[in-house]
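Hi R.,

Here's the input for the glutamic acid complex you asked about:
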Amino acid sequence: MMRTRFAPSPNGLLHLGHAYSAKLAHGLARAMGGQFQLRIEDIDATRSRSEYVEAIVADLRWLGLDWDSEIVFQSDRLARYDAAAERLKAMGLLYPCSCTRSQIQVAAKAEGPEGPVYPGTCRPDADGNGGADCTRPHSWRLDIAKAAAMAGPLGWHDRVAGKVVAEPELFGDVVLLRKDAPASYHLAATLDDAADGMTHVVRGMDLFAATHIHRLLQALLDLPPPLYWHHALLTGQDGRKLSKSEQAPALSELREAGKSGPAVLDALGSDATGPRVFRTGILAGNP
Ligand code: GLU
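And here is the predicted structure with glutamic acid in place:
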């Protein structure tokens, strides 16, 4: 059975870029006679709010995008993330890190897809010496070089980019268990996609690089890789990712102003491989 999902984080209101992404995932599921899941990525308790969950549900209903099973909340699955992290620890692939963000910024020598590449300060040497001061708050990082060597060459198939060679090394040693949250996005999303039998992962190009890490985690944890569709982003007229700061209204504003959700969705178009430029005029003709 074909399955895909829309997986927003409830730390803000959805905007038109989210509507576009949900539309593509939902449309693919419906076209393939598959299933569409709504997954709420709420592991970060400090940033997640129940009012945003309510707005997500109301926005999707207003857009006319229905989902097939119970809504999945990542906050209900923390034990699973922990169990997977324990497995990676037992494989000798995670190490504690007590560095602060500013220490990393000062010591980093390269820039990766998520910011400065971790310079390896707390990584123990081959004999297990060195390492973090675990009396201080610490995260757990994945030893990327060791993990990539264990997994061997990897790749994935992307609907737009075609065959992609995975290069998790670009990130350096990523955090899998955060200091301030029970798991990282990378670990939780990879585990959930597999646990719920996702055959297709549809999401914006802004998450393309994350797949280098997700593919590696799948290989380490014996999870089947889904097919990927990293679609072009809806951009503002300046070519930058559409966000509220560029005057794109939140979906709830449009909803509360009495606009028609399906008409808004329609106006976003569906040419998912080319860039979609948002013009405020596309909303003008909607009831
Ligand atoms: N929660 C992520 C976001 O809102 C999306 C995760 C995913 O689709 O893999 O950007």
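One thing worth noting: The first strand starts at residue 3 and ends at 6.

Cheers,
M.
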